[in-house]
Amino acid sequence: MSKFSIDISLQIKHPEISAEVLKKEISLLPATVHSVGDKVIRGDGKELPFTYNETYLCYDIVPLQDFSDIFEALKSANDFVKNKVKNNSVFFDINQSGGSASYYLAVYTKDHLAFSIPSEILRETSELGIGIGVELFQNYTE
């Protein structure tokens, strides 16, 4: 039995490019989307007197599941992205124009957890132009 569960999202942010333009590059519907300049609307539908200061797209790419190591989880994410991206340089283009593309790893554990990310996965993720962010949730119960 694994010591932890992980889900991975791909988050894309950009201060100027709209969500519609960015969505054309990935063959997947985002779970969360808003464009720079859009009105902020609460969950209950009430419009707030604010606008988003950046475009944000979040794709759920690896659903919550048990993994035996970080390598396996990130390999799944990289393989998924490679199959869904039309233009191999899209994330570099986003990064170079002031935006960012990164994996968000939510790691759930009941125990103490320490891990390293293998260089093979770091290289592969870097070649895609994607960063990695990790958040640990301890005392996770299903």
Short description:
The protein has 142 residues and is α+β, with helices and mostly antiparallel strands. The protein has one domain (4-138).
Residue fraction in strands: 35-45%
* Count, helices: 4
Helix content: 25-40%
Q: Would you list the SSEs in sequence order as H and E? A: EHEEEEHHEHE
Spatial arrangement of strands, main beta sheet: 2-5-1-6-7
- The number of strands is 7
Shape: globular
**Major β-sheet annotation:** 5 strands, mixed
User: What do the pLDDT scores average to?
Assistant: 89
Task: List low-confidence stretches.
Answer: none
> How many whole angstroms does the radius of gyration measure?
16 Å
Domain tally: 1
Q: What is the rounded distance between the termini?
A: 14 Å
- Category by helix and strand content: alpha+beta
Relevant terms:
single chain, 142 residues, alpha+beta, five-stranded mixed beta sheet, two-stranded antiparallel ribbon, 7 strands
